């Protein structure tokens, strides 16, 4: 069972590293690239990270590919330095390796392998026309952030690069391609590119045919089937680290090629693995810069619901996801204000202590946050019908302004958009959920986010001891699964990874549930405030 505080002796860990009984997972999150090395008992041996931020360029959110490689090398170098410091060993190899990243988005390349337009991330909502047309055409929800929506929108916009596209993929697929030479993608991430047939575990052939027959698509010099990567199930062979890939990852030449590579996955897939939520009727809520609530389905949904992304687990089983583009960015900005105040007052507070203090105060607030309203929209939010975003805090003159109510409103507002899609699954489609696990750094402060989420979903919320391990640890587990693929993924996680795992569960409190519903009604009623802010405040200063 994983534990950030390494329980092994240094000699045992060093022997595991030297003998290759390790797995490395690296995940490109929205604000951090993190590398985690685990042993065969799923304990974290070493880690490294690199902070980065997306850029708004010409109205679109992006990360330059130069920063992708700078960040990857820096995170890996930090991990290798951690290994050297802890165990007095150079990191020359690992037993297996895998990469994951923020899902979806659009990275199109020409026949020479050159990027045709800057990386368009999941955060962009300029693809609404494509979303509506394709969803109606397929009778299957094609979210704005999906890769096929980006490609089709570019076609509709008559963008000059479209005829030159020879391959397009996600960020995880791109990094994997450059390190292995293989144009493949884990099926969970692939399901955010184009609909997957859950029976064949391939891209849906009927939908590919329908898409190909669209006049604007038929006029292109390529076939859509030739542009997509090959979907792979967890545990399948995804190639090996090539000499060129080893040099890209570790320019010092210390890391040797030939390492087996797991299929590259999206952050939704690694979140499911890290929370042991890959069986039907299990689910997880993964919270970071964005937030998604995922439920593994027993059947496909009966109707088309724009609020729910139809995706798959890394094992290819159907899942429904409510995905909100915005979560911690606004919250982090407010915490920085309190950090600045503490510093100006001569107080020294560690960042974790500051978050914990502010979060705990939220539990002392009034059930409905005292009439305060907050909108955490840094960017557009499909679930709220917003093409763009502006963070807004508002209150009426009779509201009860206090630190406790303010922080409660911050947390309530952060969970509000994702509740919209979750309500569609549970209330309209009757989806049954046996367990829902919270995952992400926001859950590291005991009880607080857990209790707020239990109120939002009116359901028990479990937080496991791996809550803060994150997707990089989940990707490392998927890399380890390469050696255990004779078992199905769910059984492997139950029997090997999570056996004896410690967890806490918060049941919903009736007063909190009622308070959240009052806040949520106020949140929805006040959305015209957000729309007025979008119309009044320039996107770029």
TrEMBL record:
Domain Carbohydrate kinase FGGY C-terminal: 284-479
Residues that span the membrane, as ranges: none
The UniProt record lists the keyword Cell division: no
UniProt keyword annotations, A-Z: Carbohydrate metabolism, Kinase, Transferase, Xylose metabolism
Gene3D superfamilies with a match to the protein in the record: 3.30.420.40
Record carries keyword Transferase: yes
SUPFAM superfamilies reported for this sequence: Actin-like ATPase domain
InterPro entries named among the record's database cross-references: ATPase_NBD, FGGY_C, FGGY_Carb_Kinase, FGGY_N
Domain Carbohydrate kinase FGGY N-terminal: from-to ranges: 24-248
CDD domains, sorted: ASKHA_NBD_FGGY_BaXK-like
Family statement: Belongs to the FGGY kinase family.
The name this protein goes by in its record: ATPase
Organism annotation: Bombiscardovia apis
Taxonomic lineage from the root: Bacteria, Bacillati, Actinomycetota, Actinomycetes, Bifidobacteriales
